[in-house]
Amino acid sequence: MTDRTGGADGTKRDLAASRGIETDVYQPAEDSGLLASAVEKRGRGRLLEVGTGSGWVAARAAREAPEVTSVVASDLSPHACRAARRRAMGAGGDDRTRNEAGGQGPTGDDAGGDDRPNGGATVDVADGSPLFDVVRADLVAPFADDAFDTVAFNPPYLPTDPENEWDDWMERALSGGESGRELIDPFLETVGRVLAPDGVALLLVSSLTGYGAVLDAVRECGFDHEVVVEESYPFETLSVLALTHGSET
Amino acid sequence: MKESLMDILCDPLDKSDLELEVDERDGEEIIEGRLVGTVTGEVYPIEDGIPNLLPPDMRDEE
C-alpha cells in the first residue's frame, strides 16, 4: 500500500482507479507480493487467506507454494469474493495476462513473481474445478477449530481519521481505523482457534500501523513470532511475521 | 465450493456443524444451495459457488 499513504481522498481513489478495472476491490501491490513470497517460504498444508481481495495471493499460493496442498480464500466484501472466485476459476486471473495488460502486479524486486515462468503448478485445474475455494466470511468466524496449517492475512492497515472515511468497499479494503489495527487485533484474538497446534499464521505488518503495538498484541495473544521477510519503501517498512502458538498454549 | 470444504466449515454464530443442501452441482463443486446451522437453524446461501457465511447481522451489505 506504499503509494496510497500520503494522498487526500481524491488521490487515493485515483490510484485505486488507475490500478484496477474495478475500484471496489484492492488490487495486488507491494504488500501482496511480500505476503506471497512469505507464503512460498513458510506456507504448507491447508492454507487460509483472510481478506483475499482479488485473490492474487491465494492463487500464487495454490500454484507456486511448494508445500501448500489446498487453499481457501475469504473476504468480507461480496465484490472481492466474486473477483477472487473468477481468479480461482482461471478466468481473468492469470498473472501473466494481468502483468502484460497493465503492469499492475507487485513492483518490488524480491516481492514480485513477474519473472516466473508458468511452471510450478501444484493444482490441476483441467477438470474445471477451481484452483481454490472462496468463502464470504468475517475473519475466521466460519472455520472449524484447528482447520488450517497456515493462515495468511494482509490486513487493511492504514490509520484513518474517522472524519475522512469514505464508507465504501475500497475504504474497508484499506482502512485499519484510527489505530490502523482495527482488524489486526480481532484477527490475533481469533486466529489461534482455527490454527492447527503446529500451524503458522503469516501476518503482514506495516510500520505505518505501529510495529511495536502489533508486536505487543501478538504477545498478549500468546504467539511466538519471527520475521519471515521485510522490505523498506519510501513511506513504510513492510514485514511479514510468522506467528506460532506459544509454549504456554 | 468443493464438497470437501464441509470438513472445515462451521456455523459462524456458535461453531456448531452445518448441513449442506445442494440445488446445483458440477461434480465435486457445489454451485448453488445453502448451508444450514444444525443448532441455530440459520440459513447461509451458496451462490455462484461462493458460500456466504457472514453472520445474519452483517449479511445485507452489498
TrEMBL record, chain A:
Its EC number is 2.1.1.-. PROSITE patterns: N6_MTASE. Signal peptide: none annotated. It is an enzyme of class 2 (transferase). GO terms for biological process: methylation. GO terms for molecular function: methyltransferase activity. Keywords: Methyltransferase, S-adenosyl-L-methionine, Transferase. Residues 1-28, 86-125 are annotated as: Disordered. Belongs to the eukaryotic/archaeal PrmC-related family. NCBIfam families: hemK_rel_arch, PRK14968.1-1. This is HemK2/MTQ2 family protein methyltransferase.
From TrEMBL, chain B:
Coiled coil: none annotated. Gene3D superfamilies: 2.20.25.10. SUPFAM superfamilies: Trm112p-like. It comes from the Archaea. Pfam families: Trm112p. NCBIfam families: Trm112_arch. This is Methytransferase partner Trm112. The lineage of its organism: Archaea, Methanobacteriati, Methanobacteriota, Stenosarchaea group, Halobacteria.
